[in-house]
Write a structure and sequence with these properties.
single chain, 4 helices
Length: 114
């Protein structure tokens, strides 16, 4: 392994085990959650799971993960612009805002399209 290179998972390549442990993100720096994608007009939906999102992610970062996980082409055609938390109808529309600003990563989200 060469110093300065990036491995297949996007992590810097370490020269030895000690350096490898220092370079890899800690498990508690990531979160796991579900997003409900839906189209009320067509009555189609898909629940996608994001399992490895950094807790430092922005709304835009999470929106960019949708195409990686969605399997329904009809839902992939949508232009998702934010999220809505159904429990209190809070909207998260600012793309540069932290996705996990309240520390409540266990929230349920519904993707909002334009």
């Amino acid at each position: 392994a060469e110093l300065g290179k990036i491995d297949l998972d996007g992590f810097p390549v370490a020269q030895d085990d000690t350096q490898r442990k220092q370079l890899q993100p800690q498990k508690n720096e990531y979160t796991q959650f579900f997003i409900l994608l839906l189209c009320p007009k067509s009555r189609i939906f898909e629940l996608i799971e994001i399992t490895d999102s950094p807790k430092t992610s922005t709304i835009s970062d999470i929106l960019h993960r949708i195409p990686e996980k969605c399997t329904d082409d009809r839902l992939l055609e949508k232009n998702y612009i934010g999220f809505c938390r159904p429990s209190d109808r809070t909207e998260f529309m600012n793309p540069t805002a932290p996705a996990f600003q309240s520390g409540e990563e266990d929230d349920d989200w519904i993707a909002t399209d334009s």
